[in-house]
Amino acid sequence: xxxAAGPIPALSAAVLLRLGCPAGDPATRxxxxxxAEADPSRRLQLRTVLEAAGVAxxxxxxxxxxxGLLMREPVDAALLALELPGAGGAGA
Length: 92
Known about the structure:
With about 90 residues, the protein is α/β, with parallel strands linked by helices. Helices cover about 30% and strands about 15% of the residues.
């Protein structure tokens, strides 16, 4: 099912907050979530929802960018598109 043109599923801030904060005290810093999505409008929708919930967002459009961010930046969770440019197919 292609959901690229449809609305994104509702995200619950409470669920995200239960993920924990492995890289510091959650009382002193917001959760950090990597959003890897090729579609600019979906990336913006995700960023908007997450930031409204107080989440710090790292966003990118390509697989290589996502890997680079994950190697350099501590994150608490990652939302990765299933078909991200540069992923190299199912074996990636």
